[in-house]
Amino acid sequence: MNDGKLLYPMLGSGAFFGLFWLGYALAHQVGLHPITGLVLGFVTGCAGVTLVTQLERLDPEQ
Predict the structure, then answer these.
(1) 6-33 b/e with 16+ CB inside 10 Å = b?
(2) DSSP sequence for the chain
């Protein structure tokens, strides 16, 4: 259908979304300021996207 080209963009979006909220929730639980929580969420979300791009780079079918 789409030759699997939609897998990694969707996985990257999901990883960013999930890890962003995980980072924000952990910062809130620790008691950090909400702006710091947003920054921490953004950093963890970007780390998830970086992991997915590395996985895509290592995929032998691409």
Answers:
(1) eebeebbeebbeebbeebbeebeeeeee
(2) --TTTTHHHHHHHHHHHHHHHHHHHHHHHHT--HHHHHHHHHHHHHHHHHHHHHHHHH-TT-
Residues constituting the chain = 62
Q: How many CB atoms lie within 10 A of CB 52?
A: 20
Query: Hey, what are 61's tokens?
Result: 């079918």
User: pTM of the full predicted structure?
Assistant: 0.83
Q: Which tokens hold the place of 37?
A: 């929580």
- Taking only the tens place, the pLDDT of each residue in 15-34 is 999 999 999 999 999 999 99
